[in-house]
Amino acid sequence: MSGPAPKPLLPTRSVSARIPFGSAVFTTPNLACMTPSDAPGNRWSDLDRPPLNATALRRALLRPGGLWTSVDVVPATGSTNSDLAAAVTGSPPAVEGAVLVAEEQTAGRGRLDRVWTASPRSGLFFSVALRPGPEVPVERWGWLPLLAGVAVATGLSRAAGVDTSLKWPNDLLVTVDGEERKAGGVLAERAGEDTVVVGIGVNVSLRAEELPVPAAGSLALAGAVSTDRDPLLRAVLRALEHWYGQWRGAGGDPLASRVQEAYAAGCATLGRTVRAELPGDRSLTGEAVALDGAGRLVLAMEDGTREAVGAGDIVHLRPAG
């Protein structure tokens, strides 16, 4: 299946949280194939990493009037974002609410085309198709990756029993041995004129010796009470349905939908001195003090001015407080 290359949806850089999400209160065409869990006589080599149960996921998530319209699990793929973007622009096109999950990604992508790798069945690797218009103006679609970050953090904090936070704009942080570690992220891309494909990757059961870089982490290493991926995936998708519904119902207004409030409450970047590494080999250093109405990170500079950062890598230089 082929289609035009998806375009990244801004803002496309990372955020963390002053109040861990685990401590905060928040109210809250078909790609089907036989999955490992559906196959007769299925066996797997790692008893700590059983395959997802696609049938049970569909039973739990697909309901009349709900956001999710299909849930498909594949044993392996290059990138769920690329596959779902191709399906969205194909004939017939995938509809809003399509969910594509992979047990393994061989060419997973993060921000700035960075590679995301993990052992098979060690995490959640999935993408969803969303069509916010016409209720939400295109200029507000940049909130989707931030909204998805809130959903991932709140859903996992409840289901896994770990404190989570966000590093602006879309990195999921957990604490491992007293240090902040990145355990997941969000990548949102335009597919066609009216669709956004939101990809989410989370390290669930990665062991210390499997971490790709020292700054990485996983829910298991953060002390998760459960690494069963079925309830974790259900929790994230239900949280995403909740926050997306609130945001869309408010016409994409981040204040009226409380998305901006929720994100700021769980953003570990706010209140810290940070360095923003910008395109063109430029950088800014200042205190991260707020998110503006467009989801940009506002820095207070030493000279008293304020700069809004919409794209760039954020480096935490000093803890909040």
UniProtKB/TrEMBL annotation:
GO terms for molecular function: biotin--[biotin carboxyl-carrier protein] ligase activity. Transmembrane segments: none annotated. Pfam families: BPL_C, BPL_LplA_LipB. It comes from the Bacteria. Keywords: Biotin, Ligase. InterPro entries: aa-tRNA-synth_II/BPL/LPL (IPR045864), Biotin_CoA_COase_ligase (IPR004408), BPL_C (IPR003142), BPL_LPL_catalytic (IPR004143). GO terms for cellular component: cytoplasm. The keyword Ligase applies. The keyword Ligase applies. Its EC number is 6.3.4.15. Residues 61-248 form the BPL/LPL catalytic domain. This is biotin--[biotin carboxyl-carrier protein] ligase. It comes from Streptomyces clavuligerus.
